[in-house]
Amino acid sequence: IIEEDAVFIESFFTIPDEDIEFKLHLQSSWLLRFELDHAKMIDRKLTIPYVAGRIAESFKTDLFVIWSEDNSQKLIIHCRVLGGGDKNDHGLGTVEEDIFLRQLEKTMLNSVSLRISSLNYMYL
Q1: Ordered structural domains, the chain, with CATH
Q2: Is 80 exceeded by the pLDDT of residue 95?
Q3: Predicted confidence band at 119 (pLDDT cuts at 50, 70, 90)?
Q4: Rounded to an integer, what distance in angstroms lies between the CA atom of residue 26 and that of residue 29?
Q5: Which Gene3D superfamilies does the entry link to (predicted)?
Q6: What local confidence, expressed as pLDDT, does residue 55 receive?
Q7: Which 8-state DSSP code applies to residue 4?
Q8: Which of 1, 85, 96, 119 has the greatest number of CB atoms lying within 10 Å of its CB?
């Protein structure tokens, strides 16, 4: 639990949603947390819902993605792997899950295209 993210997490879960509630028990206890740079987002004409949506779209039903508002002090995206919930008796994920998340992070950073320009792709 990251205290500075508590406000946007709480506001995300304020309105009940059956689809979200169904996925809660499938979420990994580990998460990827991306903090995006405001100036770069403005310069590239990107919004946080767009970036988070591209991540969610790229990984379809394998990730649960939530994000802060565009006007937040910090632009944050949380990504949790959805799976069978392989957790030990204390509710903690395994070490292998940590390694998997590091590999997933590299994949995201290198392959999630945000915009196509005439010269090249802009990656996350």
Answers
A1: 25-123 (3.30.1360.140)
A2: no
A3: very low
A4: 9
A5: 3.30.1360.140
A6: 92
A7: G
A8: 85
Q: With contact defined as beta carbons under 8 Å apart, do 34 and 106 qualify?
A: no
Backbone angles phi, psi at 76, to 5 degrees: -125, 140
Give CA–CA dist 104/97, Å, rounded.
10
Mean pLDDT of the chain: 80
Token pair, residue 116, equals 């196509």
Q: Tell me whether strands 63-67 and 113-116 are parallel, antiparallel or unpaired.
A: unpaired
In whole angstroms, give the CA distance from residue 47 to residue 26: 28
CB-based contacts of 91: which residues, under 8 Å, 6+ apart?
A: 29
Please state the length of the chain: 124
In whole angstroms, give the CA distance from residue 8 to residue 67. 7
Separation of CA 87 from chain center: 20
pLDDT tens-digit readout, 18-38: 777 777 888 888 888 999 999
